[in-house]
Every structure is written in C-alpha cells, then in structure tokens.
Amino acid sequence: MGIVTTASSAAVDGDSESATLLIPKTSSTNPQNIPKDNFNMAYIIYFTLGAGYLLPWNAFITVVDYFSYLYPDVSVDRVFAIVYMLIGLTSLLFIVAFAHKSNSFVRINLGMVLFVIALLTVPLMDVWYIKGRVGVYVGYYVTVAAVGLCGVADGLVQGGVVGNAGELPERYMQAVVAGTAASGVLVSVLRVLTKAIYPQDAHGLRQSANLYFIVSIVVMLLNIIFYNVAHRLPVIKYYNDLKTQAVNEENEEKGDLTGKLWRSTLWDVVGTIKWYGCGILIIYVVTLSIFPGSVTEDVSSEILKDWYPIILVAGYNVFDLIGKSLTPLYLIENAKVAIGASFARLLFLPLFYGCLHGPEIFRTEIPVTVLTCLLGLTNGYFTCVLMILTPKTVQLQHAETAGIVLVLYLVVGLAIGSVLSWFWVI
C-alpha cells in the first residue's frame, strides 16, 4: 500500500505537532519540514469549531425553562434530545454512505448555514408570533423542527470537523473535543448571569432565551469565517497535501474508491475502530441517560431551589472541559484500558439511582453534585482519549472516514441514552 507508521515530533521553533500518523512512505516526515502553527491559529480555529457545532444544542437545552413555561404540557428537554439525536444519526448515516462522493469543505459550510437558519428561527418567531404567550403549540412544533434542522447540521458539521481533525496531529483533535466542552461552559455562564440579572418571570425568561440564541448565531457566523480561513494556514495545507498524496497512491494501486471497493474499504475501517467506537458509544449512553434530563428535572433542593439544576449543569460542563483538557498532560495510550474505563462508567447508573430513590443522605446536594461533576470529568477525559487514538489506527487517507464513523457511534450512544433517560420518569 505504500504506507508506514511514522512519528512526527516537534515542529519548527519548538511548536509541538507530535502525533503518530499513518502517512505515505514517500513523504518527508522530518519535523523541520512541518510548518509552524503561528500564534496557535489552527488550534484556536479547531477549538472554536468544536465549540460552535455544539453551541446550538447547548442553547436549546439550557433555555428549557423558557420552553417549559411556553409549553407546559410536554417534557421539552427529553423531546428535544430524541429529535436532535435521531435526526443527527440519520444525517450521519447518509454522510458515511456517501462520504467518498462528497467534499467535507462543502458539507461543513452547508451545515453551519443550516445552524444559523435554525438558530434565527426561534428568536424571530418569538418576536413576531409567539410574543411570550403560553400554549401556542404551533410555535412548539416549529421549535422542534428547528431542533431537527440543527440535528441535520450537526451531522454535516461534526462529522466533517472530527474527520478533518483526525487527519491532523492529536493536538487538533484535542482542540475540537475541548471546544465542545467550552460551548457548554459558555452557555452555563450565560445561564448564571441571566438568572442573576433578569427577573425570573415570563419577560426575564424570554430575554434570556433570546440572548442565548443571539450569542450562538454570532459564534456560528464567526465559525464560518474561521473555517474558510483554516484551509489556507500552512500547517493545515501541509497535512492536506500528505492526505492528497496518500489518496493518489491508493488510487494508483487500487483505482477509484467506488462501489464494492468503497464498501469494502468502509467495512475495513469500521472493523479496525469498532472497539474504540463501542467505548465512545457506551460513554454517551451512560451520560445522556442521566444528563441533562435527570439532573434538570428529577432532583430538588430546599436550600438552592431553582438554582440547583443550574449549578449541577454548570458543574458538569466545567468538569467536562477539565477532563477534555487533561490529555495534553497525560494521555492513556493503552486502548484496552481506555475502553475498559468507558464501560466502567456504567456504575454511574446505580449510583444516580441511589441519589434519586435511595436513603435520604444520598439524595442531598453534596452526593448529587459530586457524582454530576465526576460524570462530566470522566465523560470529557475518556471521550478525548478515544477520539485522539481512533483516527491514528487507520491509514491517513481513511482518517476522515474513521472520524465520521466514530461520530456515528457517538450519536448512536446519544440517541440510546436519550431514550433511556425516559426510564427515570417511568
């Protein structure tokens, strides 16, 4: 195949671009040839992209109190979660099937435009149609449709961004994954500020919701600019050229990847990364079956009152970011350990059950808060570890496909976890 495993370490002027990539034999892998990521611009862009594609989802679930006020007869956050995840899953299935016939640059730009349209829908509808009125369920159905559109956009953007990051050194995948956590922290900070500043009546909730969506729209527009700048950066062009060379070598040896050859290649990639994918899947089955549904709806505090779920969500998001920021300090390189630890997180299910239905001491604020923070910390760290390790197990020209398939596992886990979250109600 003309492919070998080669480690590229520190780049020019000490700029660390270390990663183990499966790259063409004929490529020059001398660290001195790797362009410097000046001012860490590529890292910042991928961090912002990671934050951007999850920000719409975080905005929808964080303003759930306003949607619950408008539509009191439905379990808004659980409906949102199922619609978002299932539509995102369907979107990803199409992308995996036709990834070889489409361009990630086009997919990502299209997805970000769809995000902007969906995010604009809610505040515009609120200003011109809902106007803060309770029980206008046409608005509810339009909002659910906007969530579904975000699911389509997420499949396009997340699959593409993670796939692109998989073709780069590990620090860029870490940037994307940490960015996803940062979006949750940003929304939590906004939630705390708006709750402190705005009155918690209909008018205050409405102002808060519109602020979240405006901030999300601004970030998404910034992402569109950033992404269209990223491919011009020397360090990104360098790795894109390596991929192009790898693709050309494979085409010379096997011919164009179409029909049976593409399906065979796809199944080879799936077979290579399946256990990594199962680790990611189980991480999100556990997390989504507990968070945000159980944390926002099923616990209560006489002391903290309606601040309690806000503090829990903020705690989860902060520790998720901490977990996703730990891999530069220590990365578990033994995949079996990382995958085993992911399955060990199933212990959170009986522990949280004890916090909901166990002895009174387990249902107090401290045990619930500690468990929620640990849920976030382990979710962040092991997600980041597996996302970094997975694309490096396949040849460079298939790293994007591996990244998309990994996101597919992730979204399946999210969808299953969203469905299982209803069992806390039952």
TrEMBL record:
UniProt superkingdom: Eukaryota
InterPro entries per the UniProt record, alphabetical: Eqnu_transpt (IPR002259)
Principal location listed in the UniProt entry: membrane
Pfam families, per database record: Nucleoside_tran (PF01733)
Subcellular location: Membrane
Ion transport as UniProt keyword: no
GO cellular component terms, A-Z: plasma membrane
Record-level Gene Ontology MF annotations: nucleoside transmembrane transporter activity
Keyword line: Membrane, Transmembrane, Transmembrane helix, Transport
Membrane topology, from the record: Multi-pass membrane protein
Record keyword Transport present: yes
TM ranges: 43-67, 79-99, 105-125, 137-157, 172-190, 211-230, 273-295, 307-331, 337-356, 368-389, 401-425
Family the UniProt entry places it in: Belongs to the SLC29A/ENT transporter (TC 2.A.57) family.
Designated name of the protein: Equilibrative nucleotide transporter 1
